Amino acid sequence: MFTGLADNTNPRSLASRLRRRRLAFFSSLLARVPDPVTILDVGGSLPFWKHAPLPAERQIRITLLNLSAVTASDPSIHSLVADACQIPAHAGAFDVVFSNSVIEHVGGPREQRRMADEVRRVGKRYFVQTPNRYFPIEPHFVFPLYQFLPNAIQVWLLRNFDLGWIKRARSARQAGEIISGIRLLHRAQIRDLFPGADIFEEKLLGFTKSFIAYGGW
Length: 217
Prior knowledge:
The chain is an alpha/beta fold. 30% of the residues lie in helices and 23% in strands.
């Protein structure tokens, strides 16, 4: 049930509706930026932007930064192979740095701070979204309160079941690596990583589902 609600490939799912709302908010901010606009999407994908409600008449150039190359047929979308914690660009190189559900995957506190610092360094403006650690349904494993379970129980569950978008692990070691590769953040941590940012809380049934830190607009 939870997986169906969180399926962002289904345009009628709750996750897709929330994403459209998020992109509408981003578009309202982007309307303030004169053309031409350069956007760096840290951890971005081609399908995401194909469905983004950006006006066709805008002069927008998007660079997708990932650890491996992304092939794009659209001449306005380009690929950059790099680490989010060490972006090969000068200060203020991009009009906007965008990132959707990535900073929780880059590593521990040190790596997350490095990514946040790089986002703020290379972007004149930024828009960074990440799930809320205290939302009751963990968004990757799509399991109630999974993030608060003892590690041994987390590993046992992932060794024995497919959880959300993650297939059952072949070993306890693999399960541990998957689990440790996700570090969800709460509001105070977001505030610390992006000092001076505005923090928008995306709500679902009265709970804060995720945060958006945005600044420079």
